[in-house]
What we know:
Largest sheet: 5 strands, mixed
Structural class: alpha/beta
Helix content: 25-40%
Number of strands: 5
CATH superfamily: Glutaredoxin
CATH class: Alpha Beta
Distance between the termini: 22 Å
Order of helices and strands: EHHEHHEHEE
Number of domains: 1
Amino acid sequence: MDLQLFEELVSGAAENRVKHGQVWLIFFDSFTCKRCPEVYDVFLDLSNVPELVSVFKLAHVSCPRSMDVCNRLGIRGYPTISVLDGKSIYDF
């Protein structure tokens, strides 16, 4: 699975551009986050799980580079992993 920056895939109001039936699993991070690289490695491993990628589209957002996306989606801490289904966003 090719993991790309979420804002490149879904420009504009992300929650309004997710196609019907798509569910995104999104990793949000910051350069200053000490735990983020470790968690990101695990997140990348998820792209090798066929059962997961058949349900979710995976994406990564670096919040310092994409503050508008992170602010719009209410991301306040790092790392954050969110599920976005087009109507709602759930943060973990």
